[in-house]
Amino acid sequence: xEKRVLFRSAWLPWVLIAPxxxxxxxxxFWPAGQALVQSFQMQDSFGLSKEWVGLDNxxxxxxxxxxxxxxxxxxxxxxxxxxxxxxxxxxLAIFADRIIKGAIVYKTALLLPYAVAPAVAGVLWMFMxxxxxxxxxxxxxxxxxxxxxxxxxxxxxxxxxIAAVWKQISYNFLFFLAGLQSIPKSLIEAASIDGAGPWxxxxxxxxxxxxxxxxxxxxxxxxxxxxxxxxxxxxxTQGGPGRDTAILVYKVYxxxxxxxxxxxxxxxxxxxxxxxxxxxxxxxxxxEKKVQY
Length: 293
Hints:
The chain is mainly alpha-helical. Helices cover about 70% and strands about 0% of the residues. The chain has a single domain (about 55-290), classed as MetI-like fold (Orthogonal Bundle), CATH 1.10.3720.10. β1 (about 40-45) and β2 form a beta hairpin. The longest helix has about 35 residues, at about 65-100.
């Protein structure tokens, strides 16, 4: 039978959710509405004069080759961050679930990156891969690989992917570890008695039961790659070399605060928000069908 909570007063539920509604309205709906209005306007750098231009900002965006190129850059970056982050976190969670000695130290060490601010994470990896000072770049040179993310686009993309994955890996690891520990041990023991090896037990029992967690993390990581990686890109490559690592969220900032194109930047933010909403709907509409609850 379906159970429902009944409130004696009609206004009590609204009072309980009022704080959350206020926060969402102030920090999401109001800025989103402002961006939507500004995307149809053209204004000077100081916002003193405004002119209604309709869809001209959007037309200019899609006629700009640099903006269209940022779609490809963002798609490539997002797929790498989501795929590598989820796979690596799952592997680490499996190892942590089996470790007996030193498990607390191992798990704590894997959770530490989440406490680091994105800008700090970007600076950390930038220094380690610095062509002149970085210890990782030095070891790569000793092995015959000339690393320089300031001149090589592939190196720059690799750097921001590594930094973004490292920053998010703790979040993914925590959910995967909780999911693995919630699986009844009797299922694993029964499969082991039936002769199933570790690989077979993982693909036939553990991974299907982790599908809700994996789907949740897929949605979260896609949103993270589109929005929360701005500080990492800004502190490591600043969209360079050229514009080869200028993902969409960084281009919104660059065009709005550096190029002072407020209307174009607002139009870009609307497009970016629409893309993330569409991707999320697609994931819930099609990918969730593969999930076993």
